[in-house]
Every structure is written in C-alpha cells, then in structure tokens.
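re: that chain from earlier
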Amino acid sequence: MDDLSDEIYQEGYRAFNKGEPESANPYSGIDAEYWSDGWVDAQEDE
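^ sequence. v structure.
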C-alpha cells in the first residue's frame, strides 16, 4: 500500500471512530475500498 492509499485507509478508520456511517465514504473505485477497509477494521477493533 502506498502512502496515499494508507492515508485514505486511515481516513476510513478515523471516520468510524467519529461515528460516521460507512455510507459516508467520499471516494469511488479502489480508493473507496481502502476507505471502507479502514472503516471496517476500526469496527472490528472496537
């Protein structure tokens, strides 16, 4: 994962922790998958 992809992943992770729904994903395509992966990982870590 490159730096940009990691940052998008981290945005998703932080979004879950802020209480945002997964549907708030602002990305499309592969970037949306990185964001969603971060969101889901944060949910699993809770």
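The longest helix spans residues 29-45.
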